[in-house]
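In these records, each integer encodes one residue's backbone shape. Here is one protein:

___
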Amino acid sequence: MISDEVIAYLTRVFLNKHRRLQEQFVLRIISDTPVNGTRIKDAIRCEFDRQKDDVRYALRRLMVKLIVLAVLGAAILSLWLYLSATTETVGVEILSIMGWVCVWEATSIAVLQQPELRRLWFNLERLTRAEVIFETASD
């Protein structure tokens, strides 16, 4: 099949040079001898499909983490609001800090981490659908 180094190289070249989603990606492979292109195309698509599944799984895990942190932060801040009206202790201030940290972490996931993974997933989707052309060196 195709080595991991080749797949990593193709991914790196694609992600560095083809950033716009409108571009059609064409993979041109030049070889000295005729090549069985179907097996190589299938291997390339299979590898990028596997990478897409890994990214999709990471996105799901991030979404669950985001929801848990947002709900936990809202619950802790609600408890802090309720307790701060009646008591002034260090424990109440610790609840405030914990609530804001949970909300901040959820915001960080939504604003910074998720868009990067989504962009990677869309690029891998384009790589999966890329046109693969095989040419001999004499062409």
The chain has one domain: 4-136. The first strand starts at residue 26 and ends at 31. Residues 4-136 form one domain. The chain is about 75% helix and 10% strand.
